[in-house]
Every structure is written in structure tokens, then in C-alpha cells.
Amino acid sequence: MLLLRLLPVGLTFGVLQVVLRLADDADLVRRLKARDPKAMSDLYDRYGRLAYSLIHRVVRNPSAAEDLLQETFMRVWNRVGSFDAERGALGPWVLAVARNRAIDYLRSVDGRMQAGAVDLDRLEHPAQFSDIDNSALAIDRIRRLKSAFEKLTPNQRLVIELAYYEGMSQTEMAERLKQPLGTVKTWTRSALKILRDELGEAAIA
Amino acid sequence: MTCLELQDAYELYALGVLEGGEKAEIDAHLARGCEDCRKGLADARAMNAALLSFVPEEYPSARLKRRVMEGIGVRHPGPWWGWMGALAAALMLIVALWLAVQERERTAELAAARRTLMQVDAERDRLTQALRFLSDPQTVPASFGKGPAAPPRGYVFLHPQLGVLLIASNLPAAGQGKAYEMWVIPKGGAPRPAGLFQSDGARAVHILNGPIDLATLGVVAVTVEPEAGSAAPTSQPIIAAPVGT
Predict the structure, then answer these.
(1) Is-contact B181 B223, C-beta < 8 A?
(2) A101 and A142 co-located in one domain
(3) Which of A148, B31, B157, B174 could form a disulfide with A198 if both were Cys (CB 3.0 to 4.6 A apart)?
(4) Which of A164, A166, A186 to mutate: most B Cβ within 10 Å?
(5) Given strand B153-159, what is the order of strands in its sheet?
(6) Which residue range(s) make up the domain with A41?
(7) How far apart are alpha carbons B102 and B31 in whole angstroms?
(8) Which residues of A touch B52 (CB under 8 A)?
(9) Packing angle between helix A62-79 and helix A37-59, nearest 10 degrees?
């Protein structure tokens, strides 16, 4: 039986900390690229708790979460050379790396290697995080997203959770939920549209 | 498919969970440099980041940061506060021990000084009393040890109100667990204890305070007794000073 886990809607202290320090990210990236160990310490202080919370939410195992967080920061350290300090969004990149490490772990534990899965490695390449709105984690955006999320139906929330925190494709969701693929696609598409519209991010007219 | 048809799939593509034709379509758009898809994906990544931040706050262990830093070759010198704490505790222990030793030494020094002071006070009192004996016209002298067989020599001064003053020379130490005991022996009576004293190995001064009856006193004698004293002499007198002869 599927355990329905609703996304928490409270804003975390970690997010607030991130928001307050966004302006320093470019300088932090420059120092990381210069292999300044103090920059790594600052990166951990800035995003460590939020990334850990995300990984923990996915794997629900503190010990594994710690290993995965270490792997996340090592990956950021090793790949920051390709990151664009001026145009890149550091926070979304770190969160994407953290989430992908956790999903990778979850898949290996479940023995679940989905057919046609997009290579997570490629999707978290630093170049993918250029020209992202630097206010991606800004407090007002998160408030609006929270408001939109609360408008979703339970089924819509469920498919969002399965995609974001369990890394499931829509086919896998349909199997898990014992619902037609078309129904799952409708739930997913409508949920994302509500969220996107609330943020005013329907970029393509 | 057009970019408009693909826009609902950007978030799932960015999450790595899109499959089938839609994924292939976005790949193809990106491969040919589709600016709309690139922009749409950038927006999708921004929304994904915001959604992923909606998690309950959890706290990693304090040692995790050290592990992360060690991962890039930064050797942590250890919890400096732990070392500092241990060092501070060790220093405090050393200081406490030093203070305890100092206190103990000071206490011992004070006790020794107090004993010395008491001895000096006692000596001064004895000499003061002796001076009173010697300066008072009522004092009657008596000598002893003038014979060749009696090594200790000296004088006994008798005063009807002050008592008896004994000054002896050539008087060896009484020995371990022993003391000299003075006796006043009335004429035709039994010896009465008149106090214990020690010799410094050559000289001794002893005083029996209080009035005495010079008329009935026959002899002042000294014997060696156990250091607690005896009720009656247990040895032969080493000093015997006849009074009034």
C-alpha cells in the first residue's frame, strides 16, 4: 500500500539563510574555482543543512544521508570549474546534485533502473544551471509556490512527490498507483501547470 | 512536437524522469539549439529548486562537515576546543595540586613556628621565674653535686612563696621515653612529685611553682622516671640537694 506523504509547506530556516546570502554566491563560486578550502567550508555552511534535509527526505536514513551529502559536496568541488560564476545559480545546482545523489541511491536500493532514464549526471552538469533566475530560492517565490501547492488535489500532490522525491517516471507512477498512464500524465501536467502559473513561469506563450 | 507542446514536460525532463517520445523531442530541440526549450528548461530548474527546498529541516551530525572538509584534503586538527578544554583542565589540576602543596607546606611551617614560639615563651617564662628567685632576698640557695661521684652539678633556690628553682649543669639527656622528675622530700617524710623536665644534654632549669614550707623541707632530689612521671621515685636520685645544711 502506498504511503501518502504530503510535502511539508513550512518555510525552513535553511531556506531563509540561503535567500539572505544569494548575493554572495558569485564570489563563493570564484573562491571555489580557486580551490580555496575556506570556500568549501562556506559552501557547506550555506547549503549543507538544506541539502542534507533534502537528501534525508528522499532516503529517510540519516547515515546514508550523511554519506550522500559528502558525495554531493565532493561532486560540487570537483565540477565547479565548469560552473559560470556570473550566470550560474549555485543553490539550484547544489540542490539538484543532492537530489540526484539521493535518487540514485534510492534506485540502487530498490533495484529500480528505469528504462530510458535520463542520465542524471548530464542533467546536473554545471552548464545546465546558467541563466537560471538567481532568485530561484527567493522567499517570495517560495511563498507563492507554497500557496500554489496547497491548491493541488491529493492525487496531484502525490504525483509531484513521486517525481521529485522518489525519481519515478510517469510509467512507474502508473504502475505504483495502479492507474492508467494517461490519468497519471493528466495529474502531473495539471499540477505542474498550477505551480508554474502561480510563479508566472509559463514562459512560452 | 513544438516547444509549446513540450512546455509541460520541462520540469520532469530536468528531474530526469521524463521518458519516451517527449524526452527524445526535447533532446532533439536542445541538440539543434532551440532557445525556447533552453529558456523553458532554465525556468523549470528554478521551480524545481524551489519545490525541492520544501523539506522538513533535518540536522546532520556535527562531524559531517569535518568529513566533507577531509574529503578535499583539509585535515582537521581535531576539535581544538576539546584540546583546549583538556589543556585547561590539566592546567587547573596542576594549579590545584600546587596550591594544595603550598597550603600544606604553609600549614607545616606555621605549626613549626607556633611550636618554636611556644618553646621560646616557655623558656622566657622559666628564665623570668628564675630571675625572680635569684633576685628575691628570701630565696635560700642549696647546692648539689659537689662530690666527685655526682657529675650533675648546680643549685636549688628555695622561696617560701615562689617555690623551688633548680638549675643544673653537666646533666645528660634523660633518654628515650624518660624524663627527669624533681622531688621535694620533707624531713622524715615521703618524697612528693615536683614536676617533670628535660635536659638539653648539658643544662636544665626547672621550677616548682607555689609556696613551700622551708622549715620542714629536707631534700630536693631528681630521679630519672618514665616520661609520664611517677607517683614515687623508681630509681636512685642523680641529684640530691639537702636543704638547710
Answers:
(1) yes
(2) no
(3) A148
(4) A164
(5) B140-144, B153-159, B163-169, B203-209
(6) 1-132
(7) 85
(8) 54, 95-96, 99, 164
(9) 140
Q: Which CATH number goes with the domain that contains A187?
A: 1.10.10.10
Instruction: Report mean pLDDT in 10-residue bins for chain B, 245 residues.
Output: 87 91 91 91 91 89 91 72 76 89 87 84 79 80 67 86 88 90 92 91 86 90 92 90 78
Q: Which residue of A has its CA nearest to B11?
A: A192
State the Cα angle at A172 between A169 and A177, rounded to 5°.
125
| Residues A128, B45: C-beta atoms closer than 8 Å | yes
How is residue B94 written as a grid cell? Answer: 596542576
Residue that is written with C-alpha cell 617560701 in the block:
B160
- The C-alpha angle A82, A88, A89, rounded to 5 degrees, equals 125
Rounded Cα distance between B138 and B135, Å, is: 9
pLDDT tens per residue across span B156-185:
889 898 899 998 888 888 889 999 999 999
**Number of structural domains chain A divides into:** 2
Tell me the three state secondary structure of residue A130: strand
Per-residue pLDDT, A59: 94
The alpha-carbon gap from B23 to the nearest alpha carbon of chain A, in Å, equals 8
Of B4, B17, B57, the CB nearest to A204: B4
B16, B42, B72: residue with CB nearest A37: B72
| Three cell numbers written together for A143 | 511563498
Q: Provide the H-helix boundaries in chain A.
A: 13-20, 25-33, 37-59, 62-79, 90-110, 120-123, 139-150, 154-165, 170-177, 181-199
**Domain of residue B177, residue span:** 140-242
pLDDT at A155 over 90: yes
Residues A147, A105 share a domain: no
* pLDDT score of A71: 95
Tell me the Ramachandran region of residue A6: left when phi exceeds 0, alpha when psi lies from -120 to 50, beta otherwise.
beta
Instruction: Answer yes or no: do B221 and B164 share one domain.
Output: yes
Structure confidence at residue A22 as a pLDDT band (50, 70, 90): low
Which residue in the block uniquely carries the three cell numbers 584534503? B73
Distance CA B236, CA B222 (A): 9
